[in-house]
Amino acid sequence: MGQVLTLKRRQNLIGWLFIVPASVLIFIFYFYPIVRAALLSFQTGVGVNLQYAGLFNYQRLLADNVLKTSITNVFIFLIIQVPVMLTLALILASLLNDPNLKFRGFFRTALFLPCATSLVSYAIVFRSLFALDGLVNFVLTSLNIVERPINWIGNPWTARALIIIALTWRWTGYNMVFYLAGLQNIDRSIYEAALIDGASGFTRFTRITVPLLKPIILLTSIMSTNGTLQLFDETMNLTNGGPANATLSVSVYLPAVLPVFTKVRLCRGHLLCDLCHGGCTLFHPNEGG
Amino acid sequence: MIRRRLANVFKYVFLFAAALLSIFPLLWMAVSATNSSVDVVTGRLLPGTYLLENFRKLAETHNIGLAMWNSFRNALAATAASLVVCSIAGYGFEIYYDKGKDFLMRILLLSMMIPFAAIMIPLFMMVGKMGLLNTTTAFVLPTVSTAFLIFLFRQSARYFPPDIIEAARLEGMSELGIFFRMYVPIMRSTYVTAGIITFMNAWNSYLWPLIIMQSKDSIVMPLLISNLIAGYVTDYGMVMLGVTLSVLPTVIIFLLLQNSFAEGILSSMR
Description:
Largest interface: A-B, 91 and 93 residues
Structural class of chain A: mainly alpha
Strand content of chain B: under 5%
Number of helices of chain A: 13
Strand order of the largest sheet of chain A: 1-2
Oligomer: heterodimer
Number of helices of chain B: 15
Distance between the termini of chain A: 37 Å
Helix content of chain A: over 70%
CATH architecture of chain B: Orthogonal Bundle
Number of strands of chain A: 2
Order of helices and strands of chain B: HHHHHHHHHHHHHHH
Order of helices and strands of chain A: HEEHHHHHHHHHHHH
CATH class of the largest domain in chain A: Mainly Alpha
Distance between the termini of chain B: 41 Å
CATH superfamily of the largest domain in chain A: MetI-like
CATH architecture of the largest domain in chain A: Orthogonal Bundle
Shape of chain A: flat
Structural class of chain B: mainly alpha
CATH superfamily of chain B: MetI-like
Largest sheet of chain B: none
């Protein structure tokens, strides 16, 4: 009996040894920095000469109009882009779920392919496609749809539209995969019964597909919201936050505040981080559980 | 009947249009890499003969070979380190399960809520203090251990038959031996999935290298292609060649291992 116990204890100890390296690394590279960021948000100074300043940074941030603009922008992207993308992904997934569909593999690969491109790369491809002298304007003017080339990244709303188009292109297929997996768990006989009862495609979509996929729709909404709140690579490389901050996102504003770390006041940036973090936690009530 | 056929036609038209829109920017990118800047702008959609010329210009103005090599080295190091550290942890959490470890796992999962932008500056300060700026170590360190990968391996260890472990123990195999000689070979597909995800993330990583890779010698692909459009006059043929080269590795991996890739995304929601 005693020997069994020591053996168990030995195994338990080995178990801890297996998990310690990974756990320590997460504590050092995630939890310590976030605590550090929170503490720094109450300090002010240049470089390493930091002093406690109470709520000074918070007051400054509240008065910061550019920050307000960047938060507004992120919410504009959020409100328009996420619903459009998720609806599109859901429609595509339910069309692809038909086992009699021809070219199913091709459609799936094609729609999923954008996920393989890096964020910087596709941002630059889109920037070139939608440049003033780019292909999209060339086609639009050749077909006489518009008189003069549209300055996509020069006007606030076209720039925002461009970001939304680009985001939708990159992420629709990604979300579609989640829905496809969810649809595979729905019993086909439910659809067959509905078909016999004479339900139209639209009715089957709204009455069967959407309600049964609710948990996955929630999951993708949370993920997309989180992704949009942290938007960086696209706004940085597609529009560089412009024109006149119309597409500036919070994560782009942050490095803009801190172009050279040693020269600029550190803490303002930190508070920005915390704010961004607060935003994410707000929209992340269930994660990690 | 006619209505149904019409709906069917509409369905295929819609799907083909969506598929075309998905592929077109990538196709255009690849084709443009072989065309001159003027041809790219005027909408030439056929492959041209400017590939070598574009490559020569790209190689002259940017150190593409170095950036490719740095990206490969960083991504491979990140992938190898993550797989070892996270898989052994995931295995440990599941096979030697107890309440204390379960509690720790819950805490680790909280780290998934922390956006990178929030910890970027303290991380930068830490890495700077350690004198690791511009190094692969600095690139790798913050992402060696991720709750996501630990979770992935813990889930897969759940399907690892306990009989094998018992039998191996009776044979006198050490616990570490069981992990390396039993678990690793059997769970090869999980390693492939985790490896693809980690490699792609590391290859595409932009914000972190943007901060820490400050010397010319440590440049990586996302930084290089981001620089390509920085000038006032853009040579589109050259830019598109650069972008194509940066996308090529991940697209090839994607096409070869498409199913594992989709599985990898899905395993995060199980």
